[in-house]
Amino acid sequence: MAPSPVLARALTAAAALAAALRGIAAEGAGTCDATSDTCDGTAMLQHRSKTALGTGGPSPPASATKVLAGKSVYFLPVDRFGTNDMGAEKCVNDNIWCNGTLRGLIENLDYIQNMGFDCVWITPVVYQWQGQSPSGTGCMGYWAYDLYKIDPHFGTPQDLKDLVSGLHDRDMCIVYDFVANHMGPIHGESFVKEMVPFNETKYFNQLFIGNLSFDEYTAKTSNWPPPAQAMWSQSGAQCTQGRPCSCYVCDDLGGIADPFKSCQGDMVFDPTGPCPKNALSPYCMPGDYQCEGYNETITQQGWFYDLGDLNQSDPFVRNEQKKWLKWFVDEYNIDTLRLDTAAFMTWDFLSELQEAAGVPIIGEVTTTNMTYHASFQKEGGREVLDGVLNFPIYYSALAGFCGKWFPFSTWNLTFLGTRMAEQATAPYERLDSLGNFIDNHDVPRITDTCNHDLNRIKSAVAFTMLIKGVPIMYYGTEELFTEVRESLWDKGFNQSTDMYQYIKSLNAVRKHSEGMPLSSQDVIPSNSDAKLIFTRGGKDKMWVYLNNMASNSSGGVDYCAELPPTTAGYKWVDWFTGKDAVFEGGCFKAGDALPKVLLPEPEATSLTSLTS
Predict the structure, then answer these.
(1) Residue 37: what are its φ and ψ, rounded to 5°?
(2) N or C, which end of the chain is more exposed by having fewer CB within 10 Å?
(3) Rounded distance, CA 582 to CA 580, Å?
(4) Structure confidence at residue 134 as a pLDDT band (50, 70, 90)
């Protein structure tokens, strides 16, 4: 039977959280005149970035790298970023090794640092399954076969140590991705015998094995189960076995809800489905306890396809995973960890894993249920993980800015603001440790999802970088990639593109505004579902104005809502252009649909003159 929800979903408005931002001070110089109509966008972004990022300054204490809250993160798959042979051709095939390496990453750290990021998140580099199956290869790093070796495709143990020391020399941190839920593909006992350290079949979950031998249970390379599956209804994980887990259907095609595909009619609630009315999920997901047939045991003990699901109830498995993690963190001087598929393991094991790690872990929990999501930070009075990737906000943001279908969220930035407010009052331990993103290695690119519309892409990216939590930018966003796992090396690591400079400027404003990354956040009610307004650090520090209007929208954009306060001797200035904000008739006259970030500055100075 399905358990009761951990707690009821929070529905009240957000309360302002503590922490103050102060002052506007910057170093550096620029030649772009912020008051000139002839100053082009790229030059202004370059100027803005220099204003706040500056150079030099005292190094943080060594322990500063071991904290993720307040940082910004650049996420990359090692196999797709840089190679030892920088003349290598473009590679986009998900199912083959593209031969990106740790050494290729080390040689191009300037590219990431100059964009203003504090940390680099890399995919796992431990030794992978070396074969190829219908599902692909181990090129992404999530199919481990030996936890104590570095896969030679990626490099050597020394290469990983050099990467970490190279980041630390730049006062940057490493976020290392790892998997505790499963190992690589298993098709028979002979596969298990090759694994280190889990080389016996008893170390893997065998739910519903019945009279099958282990070889029979793991024989399939597609069309699972068996083995029992952790997702959807193949084995009865999130809804009753054998029935569709969809909450919504397309009213003219009878299709199954998919947030990344178009319906020619309207997506409507399916009363014959397993979901409660007004479900926030398009289909039954982890944490959707009200779905008929939801089974947490199957969710936690089922496999992902043919990937060997580890049995943490076995003392050897449990202890060895904690032992290995502590060894790995110490051996490679890891600052922070990202944990794959965290929602498919028990809270008590995750709590022990976090304690063993000794550094923050941010977990992947794919859910819309914020109470369930928050339980992965603290559950039943027990600390679990330090942080969680912010899937509840991601789903609504993607739909709100780009128009792809998701319940209540499509083209609806008012609903996105409501979700932001709900999250502020949900039972999270640390909102600053939520990892915000707008795409990643498992979902379509923001450029593709927004149909290449630059205004919408920039609004979605600005949202990700400026809301409360840890902003995570997926590599290639600065190149407007459309392929999910395309190689970057063939683009030449160009630091002058408009999007590179734009992301650099967003990182710069985070540093320019003292205390902003850990400051409070308030959503300001707007007069339009197409607009989103929020503040950081209080209403006298920073105002962010975003919308989902197309790049070819005609006419100016007005934000008619509560306005920034007027303070004697100060004015409000747009960070991106350096121009004074115009307020008329109770509205902020933005002039165009591009994102705006308003900061206060003394009347007698300007953001430009502060640096001259």
Answers:
(1) -75, -15
(2) N
(3) 6
(4) confident
Q: Which structure tokens are listed for 74?
A: 């650049």
Measured in whole angstroms, the distance separating CA 237 from the mean position of its chain's CA atoms is: 25
- Rounded Cα distance between 235 and 223, Å, is 12
CA angle 107, 110, 114 (to 5 degrees): 165
The token pair at 346 is 């028990």
Task: Give the closest residue to 111 by CA, choosing from 513, 456, 473, 516.
Answer: 473
Alpha helices per DSSP H over 292-408: 296-301, 315-332, 347-357, 370-374, 391-402
Collapsing DSSP to helix, strand or coil, 169 comes out as helix
What are the tens digits of pLDDT across the range 234-270? Answer: 999 999 999 999 999 988 655 555 554 567 678 999 9
- pTM, two decimals, is 0.88
**How does 403-432 read in b/e, with b if 16+ C-beta sit within 10 Å?**
bbbbbbbbbbbbbbbbbbbbbbebebbbbb
Instruction: Report the candidate in 123, 130, 197 with the shortest Cα–Cα distance to residue 160.
Output: 123
Q: Taking each helix axis from N to C terminus, what angle separates 41-53 and 498-512, rounded to the nearest 10 degrees?
A: 30
Tens-place pLDDT, residues 314-335: 999 999 999 999 999 999 999 9
By percentage, how much of the chain surpasses pLDDT 70? 86
The answer to whether the CB of 611 falls within 8 A of the CB of 578 is no
- Quote the percentage of the chain above a pLDDT of 90: 81
> Phi-psi region for residue 452, left (φ > 0), alpha (ψ -120 to 50) or beta?
left
Contact 540, 571 (CB under 8 A): no
Burial of 359 (0-12, 13-18, 19+ CB in 10 A): buried
Neighbouring CB atoms inside 10 A of 493's CB total: 19
Distance (Å, whole) CA 602 – CA 612: 15
Cβ atoms of 292 and 239 within 8 Å: the answer is yes
Query: Which one, of 524, 601, 521, lies nearest residue 567 by Cα?
Result: 601
| Alpha-carbon distances, residue 33 vs 45, 605, 612 (angstroms) | 12, 13, 10
